[in-house]
Batch of 3 targets.
Target 1
Amino acid sequence: MNALLPSPATIAALVKIGLLIGGLMTAAAYLVLVERWMAAWVQDRKGPNRVGIPLTKIRLFGLGQPLADGLKIILKEDFTPKHVDKVLYNAAPLLILATSLAIFAAIPFGSVLPPLGIPGLPDPVPFLVAPSLDVGVLWVFALSSITVYSVLLGGWASNNKYGFLGGLRSSAQLVAYEIPLGLGLLGVVLAAGSLRLDVIMSAQAQSGVWYVFAQPLGFIVFLVAAFAEAARLPFDLPEAEQELVGGYHTEYSGIKLLLFLVAEFLHMVTASFLIVIMFLGGWHFWGLTGAGDEVTWAGALIRFGVLSAKIFAVILFFMLVRWSWPRFRFDQLMNLAWKVMLPLGLANLVTVATIEEFRPQLVAALGAGPAKWLAIAAPWAVFFIGWIAAGLLTPSGTDNRPIRAHDPFDIEHELSGA
Amino acid sequence: MDAILPVLLFVVIAAAVSVGLVVFAELVGPKRHGAVKEMPYESGMDPIHDTRRRFDVRFHLVAITFLVFDVELLFLYPWAVASRSAAGIDAAVADGFVSSRGLVFMAAMVFTAFVIVGFAYDWKKGVFRWR
């Protein structure tokens, strides 16, 4: 073969990258429309329903809106104020969009294709850009941590007080919720025995027990942490419009603002992918998709459809939560992360580790059927105990004024146990 | 190399898409400057002082705690992967590297217990009290 031509595996990777980036950008644009429809529905008004085909009277329920918005914002002035740090100001939006796209290198968006029989291409072809990357989930987490940098960079480089405060809040929040996120993930990794998301999905398909049923506490912890990491309401403190105008992107306009907003939407999409893949069974559905690696074309399509439907449902849930929950105050936010989610995550980790360790002994003692049900019942018991304990230990909702310490700057006094 | 090449391609293409969008918008968009337009936005007021001042970062302790906990969790990932995979703990026991599977489990649980003790200590000391 000609040495200058890329190998079939590279071409396959390029095709998948093209499909993913195109699909994600389009999805982000149209999800904005869906979100606005959702907002309109919750607030009992009509929402965007006018923009259709230009120069005609065809409205198409407003489906032209994302195209018009995108075109408009690209043609807008991309204004760089005088007082900013030019290099960092320009780097922040590029960094955030590039990382939030590149996250998808390790996220599968389906199961596998049937064997194609192309020489040089390993069969079956998985719906995954980097199929032999063993550290899948770690790649996802590493890149989503880089997001913190771009938000902080954007906020600091803007040299604007709103932007600065937004960046600070964002870094505190993302840092705090990364630990519950990691704890939720750790339970799934323990049960599946792999960091690869496609292996995690097929492990759930083969046992037929999605991890949401086997690890309810881990699911709740991960769900809450994922909301916080995506900075969606009720955790959108970094850009609370009523307090900080726009937070870290106050000084941005035009295309750079668009990059920030698209990246934020992509974070929500990523979070939905992770929730579905790790806890809701991925492409698996009982009696519909099968569980093995052998698929027909129809089977591959059905699996892709099931996965997409679940992800869309989770995204709709994200949107519904956004329009029905009030925002937390910052001390409540930090308390939830450190005093509720972290202990619950640790409880989940210990429970799952114990069950997975002693599963062979359980099966030997009780038989396969009862052992399976016990392995599901025990985490649920821990879930309810944790829920009740968290409810009893948190102060009642009537007095939720922030605790004012004696002197907010006197940290030594605080630490000496006053 | 086969594993990492698609990832590198993806990073390069994603960066190219972002840069391309910004450059394109830079070329087609208008450019108008003005003294007022270039001021920092502070809800229409004149800016009081520069943003680059000393700022009391309240979550300094929280950041340190995060670092500790995150690193401690990172130590648990290899154990989590190895405890179930074929080339993991069971293979190590068979090869005689580890005396028994239960020992590894005990070690992991003791480690988790240390994490919990440290967490309780931090809580008692008021590290998580947000003021």
Note: Residues 330-366 of chain A form the longest helix (37 residues).
Target 2
Amino acid sequence: MNRLYPSRHIAEFRRIFQDPVLFIGLVLVVIFVLIAILSPIYAMVDESRTPDGQELFDRYLNSPVYRTIIVNTLRMGLIVAALGTALGFLLAYVQVKVDVPFKRLIHIVALIPIISPPFALATAVLILFGRNGMITQGWFGVRYDIYGLDGLSLVLTLSYFTVAYMNLKGMLQALDPALDEAATNLGASKWRIFRTVTVPMLIPGIAGSFLLLFVEAIADLGNPLVMGGNYEVLSTRIYVSIVGLYNTTAAAVLSVILLVPSLLVFIVQRYWISRTSVVSITGKPSGVSQQIRHPLVRWPLFAVVMFVVLFILLIYGTIFAGAFTKILNVNNELTLDHFDFVINGYGSEAMKDTTQLAAIATPLAGLLGMIIAFLVARKTFLGRNALDFATMLGIAVPGTILGIGYLLVFNQPNEITLPLVGTIEIIPKLTGGRAIFGGAGAIVLVYVVRSVPAALRSGVAALSQIDPAIEEASISLGADNFRTFMRITLPLIRPAFLSGLIYAFARSMTTISAIIFLTTPRTKIMTHQILNEVENGRYGNAFAYCVILIAIVLVAIGVLSIAVGTTSGAERTMEGGA
Amino acid sequence: MVSSQAGSLVLENISKTFPQRDGQGEVRAVDDVSLTINEGEFVTLLGPSGCGKTTTLRLISGFELPTAGRILLDGKDISNRPPNKRDMAMVFQSYALFPHMSVSKNVAYGLRIQRVPGRELRERVERVLDLMGLRGLGERRPNELSGGQQQRVALARSLVVEPRVLLFDEPLSNLDAKLRVQMRSEIRNIQRRLNITSVYVTHDQVEAMALSDRIVVMNQGKIEQIGSPEEIYRRPTTRFVADFIGRANFLEARIERVDGGEAEVELLGQRVRVPVTFAVSAGDHLTAVLRPEALSLREDATLAQGAVEQAMYLGSSTDYVVRVGEMVLIVVETDPSAHVVFREGQTVGVTFEPSTVHLLPPG
């Protein structure tokens, strides 16, 4: 337990009060975290604690049907976490440590899932490997039932292995090559180095990736809706409770059951894994790592990796092919009808709305992420860790849970009654068709909440590479915190800011679980429209949506890169010194 | 308590505690430090790492807040003033140049904040770059400069805003030995010329001696001694100071007689009279400090005899370790006329210059 030192905390806050911009920034951030993140989660947990909710808890936890659903969810999470981590590790290891051709292609393919809309993978896999699959039925003549755990594991692994890839690639690159050299020098073979140096050093990264993938998998809604078949998981049950049964309490109870493993994993990841990490990222690799060239290692690994790469390309190729053909695999006539439907027809509204809302959320999320990163990494005040933790909850909590929380909190105006003044509306009704902006406010807020954590982490990582003395030098020369942040900090963490923005836009454009309950007839969202098309079997339209969505994201990445700049202008050294 | 009128920068009973890593208890980094720094004075905070010197500097600059005590600048309490409003400029160990700005922009940064008009700004930047020998480098990026040049830019950036107080946080420790000596004398010359009140932190005692009007020796958060370089070296008041500044031999000394301001002691078989500024009486046991260069070795059987345990020829001097009875003494022979280098194992006579003997106060 931390003891409190009142005088010191008062002094810290007095220091913050002295700088109005810093103070206002901190207040705004705290208000954002309280209203947009904590209150919906709290409302959802609170809803499950009503007498009705308590009864449902009893019922669900004792019913064989629901027990199966819970076990299904956990089993799926574990399988995806294991497969995804293994795949991510394979690609990262080959990328960093093995001398193979086409590294650039491997890298790009590994990153594609970030900008991939939900349902795209699942639908393409269905067309390729489903009951009437082009490959299963067409080439091998088997009627393979891909619905259920098999298909889900495949699709979720391909959707989320990027997390493990990025994580482990970063760690592998940060590993000091001198370690390998020292081990070689002591007579170890490459295989021995792999077993006794590389893997042990990466264990925190491997465990961290495993946990992240587990959380992503059990929280995923889109894929189980399309691929699940009879394999029911918690997220689909929650969806049915709201959309089919209009039973918010049941959804809240199921959400709490889903929240428990998610939060547990988040806390383990945050407080255990991050502390046991032995990889020291110095930002100054002391040499160039020796790449593995042994043909018996190199070519088999290359073959496996190329198989994965081609498989992923095949799936995305199917999406494109499906968008340009009448009905892929049934009537392969080329057509632009699907694009006409999305661009000029029914889908145009969703396209515009989604892009606009994502474009509003992106700079908010990026800036908010950098501001919170600055506060957390550079200032000391009581509650600093709590601020970091609460912000990260935005992504640690499954999207469906956030969506339900928003319904509970913002489906009516939030008002307070003050003596003499009377009732004041603090927050207007944000969700539903009759809400302000046609419910768009809540969607933007959710986009921001889901994107800020990534921006925060990349901001903190970037700040930890910059000598704090550089900012102190600015202050020592008379600049206040605001000027220092705008003129020194932000330019120096520009690459992190850019990746925060790109992530925010891509995440906002492709998110489904968090906004599926929040779309309204007045605010249509592309991912939700894709789900409608998939559910109605109009795969062509769905694929056209996906292609356009990917195109929008790619254009946005280009625009953001030009607008923000990819470099800080200080690339050779970030320490203000030799 | 220090008078708050005298001196331009006054620290009054300053303390700073940090919470311990595990959240249990506190670390007292600076412990009840009082200090007055006069207008135009160059004061160095000197001590081993962890002695609280850097924390003291950060308290003066405002990057840390004192747990107790006051800091006054020209008689005004600035303890709670934020660091950007203190009219002090700091030169950092890592230089902390803005890596995304050119040298000129780095130097102009503080002037822009003061809204100095364009023409004057350019002139002042130009002038300080000239002063620091950086003419023609204005358009370079910091990472295109050598370590020494970066150091000059850092100094120029702080000098150009004409701060009330200049703060240095081990600014020379990243330079190689020769450059360090050169920059040392440049800093001293410029500070003298501009007459800027300066506080300098270092763990290098030679640097401190070369630069300072006064040295503040710190240990475990407390001030051990304040004085001119000469006072600190010749008349250390504690064993810590004597040991930290230069090298020292500590000899047990029994007071034989006290006469006026002088005490008579016997050291290495010689009776010497040593001035004392504190109360002593005959029979007291004190510690005498003898610098290694005050000792010398002769082949003379009438002197106290010792055995050479180690001899190291260093060119400009020869270092000896000599055992005299129970005592082990360090002797540095710098006399160029003493051509003889004694061998290890040889028996020699040990003598010393009586006027250099210094007695440490008891306690």
Note: Confidence is low (pLDDT under 50) at residues 280-286, 572-578 of chain A.
Target 3
Amino acid sequence: MLATAIALVFFYAPNDADQGFVQKIFYVHVPLAIVALIGFVVAGLLGVMHLRTRDDRWDYRSYVAIHMGVIFGVGVLITGAIWAKAAWGKWWVWDEPTLVSFLIVFLLYVTYYPLRYSIEDPQRRARYASVFAITAGAFVPINFIAVRLAENLVHPRVLNQTAGDMPGEMRLTFLVALAGMALLYMTLVKLELTSKHARGQLRRLRRLLEEEGSPGGAAPPPIVTVPAKPE
Amino acid sequence: MRPVGAILRKDLLVELRTKESVPSMAIFAVTTFVIFHFGLDRDRLEGELAAGVLWVTILFAAILGINRIFVAEREQGGFDGILMAPIERTSLLIAKAGALFTYLLALELVALPVFALFFLSDGFWEALPRLLVVAVLADLGLATVGALLASIAVHTRARDLLLPLLLLPLTLPVMIGAAAATKPLLSIPLETSGVGKWLAVLALYDLIFGLLAYAVFDFLMED
Amino acid sequence: MEVEQAEPAQVSEGEAGTEAILLREVTRRYGEREALHAVSTSLEAGRTLAVFGPNGAGKTTLLRMLATLLVPHAGTLRVLGSDLPRESHRVRPLVGFLSHDPLLYRDLSGRENLAFYAQLYEVADAAARIAHLLEATGMTRRADEPIRNLSRGMAQRLAVCRAVLHRPRLLLLDEPRAHLDPEAASAVDGLIGPGSDATRVLVTHDVEHGLAEADRVLALRAGHVAADAPAAHVSAADIRGVYGGAVA
């Protein structure tokens, strides 16, 4: 699917008259951003599921969702910088509120890793990670509202202004790119989850083998015969 | 409500006796103002620059206080004592947020006049009532999110480092709102238009994160 | 308060239902390790359970579970008739925990600390009760100094006051005599010793002391039950065996 999207981007969509070839970055940049943000919010919901069910699998899913979101986020910031340079001559601009909001969200989610890493108790780690995912997930929309209000928009917003105006081919390409990006995200998430699962199994098997091998066995033999409790 | 009162009173009593948090926050704020004076090479500030300097300083001073809010519980095993007691665990969150709120107000009691002294040409007294409203709403947000994040950070290894890292992005809307609301108040001449919109943003933030913190706190405390 | 002689350990007369504590296959994990594995035991109301075991055996984990600070990951846990963790809130007013840490705020005085806890536990006659406990542990004179100025032994005495402040029906004692001189130890005995009519769970490395006070003995090793029997059936040598030669 993604291959189709790429193909469409390069061969089908007409070049934007003003900005030329580089405008095609838009088809990568915006879907990356949308998918990443939705991923973050979904991670928050997965966190809720984890707290409700206490099943560690939800925590894994939440973690991977955020992990992929952060990776896509790096992509957003890089493609955003490329686009900014090509369009307005600078690598970073402050008057693009969505990009600024995204940066803030990105900085927040990057702290997810040191947070997880610095909690030793595994049960507590999963629980706290879920709380973070929920809090940060709620933060995403608030942040975008706040930053948008703060900035006086001067900048051309391809999505907004042309939401209705996008010529049919552009819109189609965009939607395909979006779908492709979403599928890429979900594939990567699935891949990561499976590999994590496999690694977990391997670790468990290894540990079981070690335990059986050692002379002590699993349980030390009781040393006092417990008389049956008198009825 | 009684356990909230008990814990809050205990915290305020400890603070009054040890004078650990509020004086440090106040000194930090005043020193930071001096640094800004030299860094910006300005004698007078107004409008957005004044608002920015003021609120950035308060935020960083707040971090000092937030970092220490659970120190008594952490170092003296007090968590166990509170967790075993027959009380709602969210009482702890509310009490800690209340303590932080009190410290921030105390901080502003010192920092605002000093700020006016250092940087404002006039109009401070006119602006003060509305400034206080902005401060109260902003402090509520900082206190709530601060207490929540402090209770997360307290169980991690690098808690002093992790807390600011978590706090800064999350409290950015408070900063945006507070600075934007303060800007017209510190402009010459004083304006009041536009303040209301930002007060609404602050109030919305306080409400959402207040509810969120209340909802998740029990999960943070259990084991 | 007078210290009464400990009752001689007796084999329980099968009164299921008057159990103050019931554990069945209780397990607690730490990551992939098991801090407690399928631990089962029981204790009748008013009796004393002595828990022995080397460091890391799970004694503290067990105690903290009974204190409602930790939840079991598997198995059944019932304390004073309530299921944990579901009914933890019912149990909390009835449990007193004397842990390694005195759980006292160092910048407050003994009296202020006790007043604080009295508020949390909604103790009815707080002032009188506090005064009585301070008197009983010989701390009245120094009750108004910050904890940080007191010796560890004095803090321990105040910790005992804190633990029994709300007249708990279940006492969880982790090395209660630690840091106490013989005079202080006998002073607190009246409050937390066998003479009190609370159910007691006692963790100690002092094998003789533990056995003397115990009605039932539980020995743990690496999270597993090594022994679970009425005290009369257990000798000091058996207990030392659990330690694997590293005697207390």
Note: Chain A touches chain B at residues 51, 104-105, 107-108, 111, 114-115, 118-121, 123-124, 127-128, 130-132, 134-136, 138-139, 142-143, 145-147, 149-150 (CB under 8 Å).
